[in-house]
Amino acid sequence: MDSTANGPAQNATDAGTDTSESLPPSLPRQPNSCSDRESDPTPEERPPPLPPRPNTLRLLDEGGASLRTARPGAPTTLQSRATTAVSLTDIGCHDAGKENHVVREASETLRAKASLNHLTSSRGSETGDTASIRSSVPQGDLGDVENVFGDFVATDTGPIRKHSTGLLQFPEFRADDVEDDFASEFEPVGDVDEEGEHEEQVLERWKAKRKHYLILSAAGKPIWTRHGDGGLISTYIGVIQTIISFYEGSKDPLRSFSAGDTKFVIVTKGPLYLVAISRLLESDTQLKLQLEALYMQILSTLTLPSLTHLFSVRPSTDLKRPLQGSETLLSTLADSFTKGSPSTLLSALECLKIRKSHRQAINNTLLKTKVSSLLYGLVVAGGRLVNVVRPKKHSLHPGDLQLLFNMIFEAEAVKAGGGESWIPVCLPGFNSSGYLYMYVSFLDLRGEGNTADDTTTKEESVAIVLISANKESFFELQDMRNAFVEQMEKNGSIKIIKEAVDRGRPNTTDIVPGTVLHHFLYKSRANVQFTMSSYNHEFSTISRRRRLMSTYNNLHASIHAKHTHVKVHHCVSQSSSSFAWVTPMFELYCVAGANANRNALAQSASKIIEWVRQEEERLFIIGGAVF
Amino acid sequence: MSESTGANTAKPSSSVKLVLLGEAAVGKSSLVLRFVNNDFQENKEPTIGAAFLTQKCSLPTRTIKFEIWDTAGQERFASLAPMYYRNAQAALVVYDVTKPSSLTKAKHWVAELQRQASPGIVIALVGNKLDLTNDANEAAGEAQPEEGHEPSPADGDEATEETQEEPDASNGDARKVPTREASAYAEEEGLLFFETSAKTGVNVVDVFTAIANAIPESSLKSGRGAGAGTGQTSLSGGRPAEDSRVNLGERGPATAKEGCAC
């Protein structure tokens, strides 16, 4: 698949075309009132009309930097944003587009405005044989979503970009032939018996895995591997360690390399080497983020000082022992990446959709029952945040919450205990040097008592998570939980949560009747939260979901590629046509069937945006409860 | 394993704080799960931190409400253990009958408890995973609650050949810790001793019943025990615990298997 990217000097008003489909050179545009115009489009097109600028643009005036920290300082129009419950953290490095953001910052506000206000041209790209890739920038802007994508303006072919920086470096994930055996990706490779009889067989199965994660110490000791055990792969560990240290020695650390369709990405964290080996067509940045999340999990288990201490005392420390029991946390985290995690891709959290007043009622109950030792209080439904209460001066970091949600909902350990749990956990984004203590108990939403039994599915289970810095505060938090749950039962909040959980995520057709869209992801950048449609039907199998996520990975990588300022990206492949639209406010990614009409796709996309805007305060936690 | 609360209402009830300790993967959580939910999960994932569960146990004369701290066995959690056993009136120190090192670890825990925990703490030494031994079948029917009871006296060594004439000796006996060795140690240290299988349920309830019977009356009188701390006041609410007339101080016989309706 050939690819093209804009050089940094070119902005989104550049013209382009695509070769696979032809559009009329110029469609009539709806007249829009122009309040101001401040950028100059390329000569071959007329200046685009400018619709009235909505309030949201004020956010842009604050500059890109504020977006990056998820705390845009526009208190008048976005009063709640400044208290958004989550924020990005440097430790977490969970912002997939970080590098890109840096570029974006440098690219000045003007460009961002221009790109929003002059969404008139389509920026084409070279297309390969297998798929047509097209980027189109529609007219209109946030303030006028109805008109967005109402028509497309295709301009004459602009000059072909000379500096292709590999915008689309991945071929399509060939899920069609993967369908059958992707599920086996997660099966154990088995053990080599004492006589070493099955070694070859086991190794064969090991090699068949599409994704590997390895963690080893700089001294070459295997620490953790997703598949197989240290003994099985010790020779590979040795090779990897040799290669990495060779480059380390020459002060030119190895970050990644490819062999055929296999990508190797290496992250060095102090005394640890983390290696991802993927045949799932993921980008370097995506794999790096995954490895960093695994590293965060190790920190969460051990804390940074104790990790550092272990290796400073004895560089040949075998970290397996201190990490004993947390392997499943690493494995479930790794598997969520391999299956494809929108949360990781977007570096954002998903919330349970409930009415603002209902959320407020739960917030108030949380605040009312709050005890003095409480640091953070969370209500989480199957990995979706329902409520959060936190001190004014501390925010929560998506990376930390990802670790917590993984522990609570993915790894069975906490839930299977059947009781209340009291867990020391280090939240590296909050403070990597010490432990916090987490009280977890599950609600039974089917009435009859307050504890869920093990037949409740992951999506249905609702957890009350109370975090304290005081390790002796279990009973205090237990009291709080009991009072909180009692109050919620009284004021009907439990029922509301249950109903919201039962409702599940909406289908795309619920939002836009008859839409061509099969699935979408919408990230609210200011809130560091995302929402998405249901996986129902189309993406119910694990391999189909993986294909969907690969499409999203692809879109995400394309639109966040370095040195590009793509705002809209349309991509057609054999199995799907997909569409990404990025503004400083949001990122929208959506997927339709292979033959979906582009206009229909775009129209649906703008309807989704409209829907999200209407439902914004239900879809996202804006502010949260602060004390 | 449901309890007939109706019958219990009249009886005085007391809370007993109990902690489970032992090496990782010996089956502490599985024992608790069997006791509390009468359930068993193969390949259960390791506990993280500690889990808090409660279960009532009905004795002929009173009801004991166990407040159970099921701790994680991994070494990195060891430093948190004092928090859980500090005010405990009872402890289950669990080892795996197929893993000698786990008994060694259990002995360390016993020593630590004797040194650091409340002086009156009732300690039970429990060898779990009896289902993996050749004793499993014969033991399934009957409880072996007595201290020093030796279900397989011949099983002196790890050699699988030397076990009693089991019909299916070919299955192999995974037992590595002879009952005699553990029971002798338990007797020496004044511990209750059981071999259990959380998987089949053998002896599980018996352990808890025996503990309930062995808790000294004095410690029941004071509800949660003398040293009750860590803000447990809330939990003691609604518990008519104070009139303990029955002498449960007698330790050892622990034969009241039928007493526990759990």
UniProtKB/TrEMBL annotation, chain A:
The keyword Membrane applies. It is a peripheral membrane protein. Pfam families: Fuz_longin_1, Fuz_longin_2, Fuz_longin_3. Residues 35-47 have a biased composition (Basic and acidic residues). Residues 1-80, 116-140 are annotated as: Disordered. Coiled coil: none annotated. Residues 1-34, 117-138 have a biased composition (Polar residues). Keywords: Autophagy, Endosome, Membrane, Protein transport, Transport, Vacuole. Residues 211-333 form the FUZ/MON1/HPS1 first Longin domain. It is found in: Endosome, Multivesicular body membrane; Prevacuolar compartment membrane; Vacuole membrane. InterPro entries: FUZ/MON1/HPS1_longin_1, FUZ/MON1/HPS1_longin_2, FUZ/MON1/HPS1_longin_3, Mon1. GO terms for cellular component: fungal-type vacuole membrane; Mon1-Ccz1 complex; multivesicular body membrane. Residues 373-485 form the FUZ/MON1/HPS1 second Longin domain. One of its GO terms (biological process) is autophagy. Residues 517-616 form the FUZ/MON1/HPS1 third Longin domain. Required for multiple vacuole delivery pathways including the cytoplasm to vacuole transport (Cvt), autophagy, pexophagy and endocytosis. Belongs to the MON1/SAND family. This is Vacuolar fusion protein MON1.
From TrEMBL, chain B:
The keyword Nucleotide-binding applies. Keywords: Nucleotide-binding. Coiled coil: none annotated. InterPro entries: P-loop_NTPase, Small_GTP-bd, Small_GTPase. GO terms for molecular function: GTP binding; GTPase activity. SMART domains: RAB, RAN, RAS, RHO. It holds the Pfam family Ras. Residues 155-168 have a biased composition (Acidic residues). The keyword Nucleotide-binding applies. It comes from the Eukaryota. Residues 138-178, 219-262 are annotated as: Disordered. PANTHER family: PTHR47978. This is Rab GTPase Vps21/Ypt51. The lineage of its organism: Eukaryota, Fungi, Dikarya, Ascomycota, Pezizomycotina.
